[in-house]
Amino acid sequence: MAFKLTALPYAPEALAPHLSARTLEFHHGKHHAAYVKKLNELIVGTNLADKSLEQIIHATAGARDTAKEQAKIFNNAAQVWNHDFYWHSMAPGAGGQPGGALARAIDRDFGSFEKFATCFNQAGVGQFGSGWVWLVMRGGKLSVVKTGNADLPLAHGQTALLTADVWEHAYYLDYQNRRPDYLTAFLAHLANWQFAASNFETAKDKAA
């Protein structure tokens, strides 16, 4: 199948002033689109051409740290998945704290939302170079993990609930080298806790 660039779930200007329309237009329309285009080029004529994005990621994950052709496929497929997930991890007028079962799970596994936020921000700031910071669930327990470059929780048996992109192109036009300010704004104003809560409930159902 040929993959298509998924439309943003909101207008490019909808996340301003925390992320500008210019950032989203470049990030989605250039970077994300390039991963989709390259993935389609790499899988044409292969046994992966009719697979889903998740199937391609699982099939090529073992090569992600090598120079093999399959590593190129993994990197582009994972970046398509990561960006699709990232756009939904944000919403206009969002941020703050979750409620309900997810809030209780965060309190249980981190001690408080404030401790979770510190952990999340420190992991994102501490990711050397390009990558991602995630709230994930595995074995019924929540944790914060960071991944380098295109790597993602799906390749490690973890269920992603929420992510922030810490590649420079995700924030540099608005925050320059101030990654901590971007991550603070992400949790305070952008994090889509309804999306995270839905992923949390799905993960619980699968684990039951």
Topology:
Layout: H1 21-43, H2 53-60, H3 69-88, H4 100-110, H5 113-126, E1 131-138, E2 141-148, E3 159-165, H6 172-175, H7 179-190, H8 193-207
Antiparallel strand pairs: 1-2, 1-3
Helix pairs in contact: 1-3, 2-3, 5-7
Can you describe this structure?
This protein is mainly alpha-helical and 208 residues long. It has two domains: 69 residues, Orthogonal Bundle (Helix Hairpins), CATH 1.10.287; 108 residues, minor pseudopilin epsh fold (3-Layer(bab) Sandwich), CATH 3.55.40. Strands 2-1-3 form a three-stranded antiparallel beta sheet, with helices on both faces. The mean pLDDT is 96.
Number of helices: 8
The CATH homologous superfamily of the largest domain is termed Iron/manganese superoxide dismutase, C-terminal domain
Percent range for β-strand residues: 5-15%
pLDDT averaged over residues:
96
Please identify, by name, the CATH architecture of the largest domain.
3-Layer(bab) Sandwich
Our count of domains comes out at 2
Could you say what the CATH topology of the largest domain is called?
Answer: minor pseudopilin epsh fold
**Residue runs with pLDDT of under 50 for 5 or more positions:** none
Query: Main sheet: which strands, in order across?
Result: 2-1-3
What is the distance, rounded to the nearest whole angstrom, between the alpha carbons of the first and last residues?
A: 33 Å
Q: How much helicity do the residues have?
A: 40-55%
SSE sequence, one letter per element: HHHHHEEEHHH
Query: How many beta strands in the DSSP annotation?
Result: 3
